[in-house]
TrEMBL record, chain A:
PROSITE patterns: ABC_TM1
Residue ranges of the TM segments: 12-32, 74-97, 109-129, 135-152, 191-214
Name of the molecule in the record: Peptide ABC transporter permease
Pfam hit, one: BPD_transp_1
This protein's record includes keyword Membrane: yes
UniProtKB/TrEMBL annotation, chain B:
Keyword Oxidoreductase attributed: no
Domain ABC transporter: 9-250
Record-linked SUPFAM superfamilies: P-loop containing nucleoside triphosphate hydrolases
ATP-binding listed as a keyword: yes
Pfam families (UniProt xref): ABC_tran (PF00005)
Keywords: ATP-binding, Nucleotide-binding, Transport
Protein name: ABC transporter domain-containing protein
Family per similarity comment: Belongs to the ABC transporter superfamily.
From TrEMBL, chain C:
Principal location listed in the UniProt entry: membrane
The keyword Cell membrane is assigned to this record: yes
Keyword annotations from UniProtKB, A to Z: ATP-binding, Cell membrane, Membrane, Nucleotide-binding, Transport
Membrane topology: Peripheral membrane protein
Name of the protein described by the UniProt record: ABC transporter domain-containing protein
Length: 290, 283, 270
């Protein structure tokens, strides 16, 4: 699969960018030229050789903050994706196969999660589990999981009723075989698109949570946090938000490209299932409430 | 003594639950297929022919009656027992539309090897067998790495036929296997299927068109509203049909010669069937 | 004078930059029936669409001439085409359900054609629609009038569509694979109906099918199309008994070797 993706230009670009982002996550904090928390004398300085991307309102080096924040930001996004996969996608696929009671239960749970107010849930989780990025991302992951549940379930349903699955069953295939061999590949493309979008919204949601003091504690840098801070000083440094924005955009764009590439190499089957619009609508709903 | 049937259905009833009452899909259907025999099951939309086909592979649960496959009584089989039976590959199934019955994301090789891998055979052995069967359905080995979307309609149907053969089944159920193909490929597919019959595999052709089956079947059974109204040697059914519906079927099948003259008799048969049943037969 | 005549019609595919129909000619008088046999992709449907002035985008008639009722259609405006379609040339296609609005009762959809094309009042249009349904042997036409497309079977829908197609009394009806998706008994019923219409009203038919037998049942003249080329053309008897082209022979052999003809003929001999 990876090899087939790499044959596409879009796939190569996406993999390239994501690899770079991955390297940033690993080595970013080491590469940072300054301590990201250390305030300097220059406040809101323009880019110079000393501070390549200038400094923020407390005189901290922006480049260092972005590099240092990359690991937390990316790990956060990955965490959201994993939670969505485990809490959303897996039950979504199994809901088609594990019988009526399980189907009913998961459907009602998904409805309940959709109805749950994001903010109240976020506050409740922080109260229970403490305040930190993993907890905040846990909240986001849980909140988007009904969406993944639905997308996975819809994709599985359409595959489960197809003739080739029936043909496999007539040949004696078990449920596990059918899922591994036929269902998984069809569910992957729409999930990949949903994940790509979630990742993008995830960055923004993290920064909006920062305003409320949930998740990221103010001095600790994240991409979203830097962006939020820059937005407050637009009149002094109108160009400043461009850099964190570009980083977030490049990452999200690469995720989308990768999703497209996955869709392309897995053929028409996935194409029909893609409904990115609902994905976006669902997520922007969560974002707005925050 | 006639050999033990490879597939036998006795007094089979299937009904589906509907909002209002029950829908009888099959009523008291009995049919047996001897080893190497080719049986045509003819019926129109809603006659129950698909239900019958699905019942003998365990996709539909009978309400009453008995089904035996290669001597094993399968009527009361549980899911696990069905799986075990299916893995032996005794009964295989070819769907009408080859494009929909092949996974678009699996290469020809993967699709063909699937029944063998499900049986738990090592991959190498499966691949070797696949190559052997590919030759039997006259497909080129270079097609192995292609996806179904990259094949022609005729090639695709030959792939699904090959997939049904790799487990060396004793009976293959063919659900309108040639109606999605064009003339040249229809002839090729039929040639292939008749060569199978000569090799001793029993075939069950399911079709709405008596004409498309008459030339290949040894025996023809006519399903009409869930019941078998006629069952006999193909030639007898075609030339001396007893039931009015069979007569209508024979009269309606598109043939090259002498079709025009039948118009009056068709009209009479339709009227007869309508009054006889007293139920809506508005098509 | 011929009702419909095609003279060496060629159709060009602007995207693939090639001719997809390479010279089709026939002439059709009132009460006659001509059949076109070919696989999907042979150009038979495009030929029909050219006659109706509804070629898909990028397809153009690049040569030859089509004339309907003695009039060359080459220079027709959109408005003139609309006047011609339904009133002079009409058509039914393979999948009847997709040509009917699922949210409207079928009767209203027939009546609409009558009102627009014949200028009848609402009440008269309704009466005419019920008459048409009756003429197409739908039992209880008044009830069918009130039904929605999903309540009707494929055969009934195709009859409703034929009713719509002949509502404005056209002189030529094109049936493009009109019976392909139906059960054989229903197919025979529809074909019988077309034959009766032809006899009673002098309706000329263009019957398009992949099945030579279907065409042979209804038509006087047959064209065999392959890859856009007319490989054989002639009276139906001549085509059936003295086929010249290998492809026609294949179409016949299929019936003789695997079809009903085989069992039947052998029985007669025996």
């Amino acid at each position: 699969m990876l090899r087939r993706i790499a044959r596409l230009t879009t796939g190569r670009i996406a993999l390239g960018i994501l690899a770079t982002v991955g390297l940033l996550a690993v080595f970013g904090p080491v590469l940072a030229p300054y301590d990201p928390l250390e305030s300097g004398a220059d406040i809101l300085a323009s880019p110079s050789w000393a501070h390549l991307l200038g400094t923020d309102y407390l005189g901290r080096d922006v480049l260092s903050r972005l590099l240092d924040g990359s690991r937390v930001s990316i790990l956060g996004a990955v965490q959201v994706a994993l939670i969505a996969l485990v809490v959303g996608v897996v039950p979504g696929i199994l809901s088609v196969y594990l019988g009526r009671p399980f189907e009913w239960l998961t459907l009602r749970l998904a409805d309940t999660l959709v109805a749950l107010p994001f903010l109240v849930f976020a506050v409740a989780v922080t109260a229970l589990l403490g305040n930190g990025i993993p907890q905040a991302m846990f909240v986001v992951g849980i909140m988007v999981s009904p969406l993944f549940y639905r997308v996975a379930r819809a994709a599985t349903l359409s595959v489960a009723r197809s003739q080739y699955v029936e043909a496999a069953i007539i040949a004696g295939a078990s449920v596990g075989w059918v899922i591994r061999r036929h269902v998984w590949v069809k569910v992957l493309p729409p999930i990949a698109v949903a994940l790509a979008n979630t990742t993008g919204v995830g960055f923004v949601v993290v920064s909006s949570l920062t305003f409320l003091g949930i998740g990221v504690q103010p001095p600790a840098p994240t991409w979203g946090g830097v962006l939020a801070a820059d937005l407050g000083y637009l009149s002094f440094q109108p160009w400043a938000p461009l850099v964190p924005t570009a980083l977030i955009m490049a990452t999200v764009w690469a995720c989308n490209l990768l999703a497209d590439a996955i869709r392309d190499v897995t053929g028409e089957a996935g194409r029909a299932l893609l409904n990115t619009r609902t994905v976006r609508a669902g997520l922007s709903g969560a974002g707005r409430e925050a | 003594m006639s050999p033990e049937p490879v597939l036998a259905v006795t007094d089979l009833d299937v009904h589906y639950r509907r909002r209002q009452g029950r829908l009888h899909a099959l009523r008291g259907v009995s049919l047996s297929v001897a080893p190497g025999e080719t049986v045509g099951v003819i019926g129109e939309t809603g006659s129950g022919k698909s239900t019958l086909a699905r019942a003998v592979v365990g996709l539909v649960r009978p309400s009453a009656g008995r089904i035996t496959v290669a001597g094993a009584e399968v009527t009361a089989f549980r899911a696990r027992q069905w799986r075990a039976l299916r893995r032996r590959g005794i009964v295989q199934y070819v769907f009408q539309d080859p494009l929909r019955s092949l996974d678009p994301d699996l290469t020809v090789e993967e699709s063909l090897a699937e029944p063998l891998l499900i049986q738990g055979r090592p991959r190498r052995e499966a691949v070797e067998r696949v190559r052997a069967y590919l030759a039997r359905v006259r497909l080129d080995e270079e097609l192995l790495s292609r996806l179904p979307g990259e094949l022609s309609g005729g090639q695709r149907q030959r792939v699904t036929i090959a997939r049904a053969l790799v487990t060396e089944p004793r009976v293959v159920i063919l659900d309108e296997p040639v109606s999605a193909l064009d003339a040249a490929n229809r002839v090729k597919a039929l040639e292939l299927l008749t060569s199978l019959r000569d090799a001793g595999t029993a075939l069950v052709f399911i079709s709405h068109d008596l004409g498309s089956v008459a030339g290949v079947a040894d025996r023809i059974a006519v399903l009409y509203r869930g019941e078998i109204v006629e069952d006999g040697p193909a030639r007898a059914v075609v030339n001396t049909p007893r039931h009015a519906y069979t007569r209508l079927l024979v009269g309606s099948a598109p043939t090259l010669r002498s079709a025009r003259a039948d118009r009056a008799s068709r009209r009479r048969l339709r009227a007869l069937l309508r009054t006889e049943e007293g139920i809506r037969h508005d098509v | 004078m011929a009702l419909l005549s095609l003279h060496d019609v060629r159709i060009h595919d602007g995207v693939g930059d090639r001719d997809v129909v390479k010279g089709v000619s026939f002439a059709l008088e009132a009460g006659q029936a001509v059949g076109i046999v070919g696989e999907s992709g042979s150009g038979k449907t495009l030929t029909c669409r050219a006659v109706l002035g509804i070629l898909p985008p990028h397809f153009t008639v690049s040569g030859g001439a089509i004339s309907v009722d003695g009039r060359d259609v080459a220079g027709l405006t959109g408005r003139q085409w609309t006047a011609l379609r339904g009133a002079t040339v009409s058509a039914v296609f393979q999948d009847p359900a997709s040509y009917l609005n699922p949210s409207l009762k079928v009767g209203g959809q027939i009546a609409e054609v009558v009102r627009v094309k014949k200028g009848l009042s609402r009440r008269d249009a309704r009466r005419r629609a019920v008459e048409l349904l009756d003429a197409l042997r739908l039992r209880d036409p008044a009830q069918v009038y009130q039904q929605y497309p999903h309540e009707l079977s494929g055969g009934m829908l195709q009859r409703v569509l034929i009713a719509t197609a002949i509502a404005a009394d056209p002189q030529v009806l094109i049936a493009d694979e009109a019976t392909t998706a139906l059960d054989v008994t229903v197919q025979a019923e529809i074909l019988d109906l077309l034959a009766e219409l032809r006899e009673s009203t002098g309706l000329a038919l263009v019957v398009v099918s992949h099945d030579l037998a279907v065409v042979a049942q209804l038509c006087d003249e047959v064209l065999v199309l392959r890859d856009g080329e007319t490989v054989e053309q002639g009276p139906v008897e001549r085509i059936l008994y003295e086929p010249r082209h290998a492809y026609t022979r294949l179409l016949i052999a299929e019936h003789e070797q695997y079809g009903l003809d085989r069992v039947r003929e052998l029985a007669h001999v025996a």
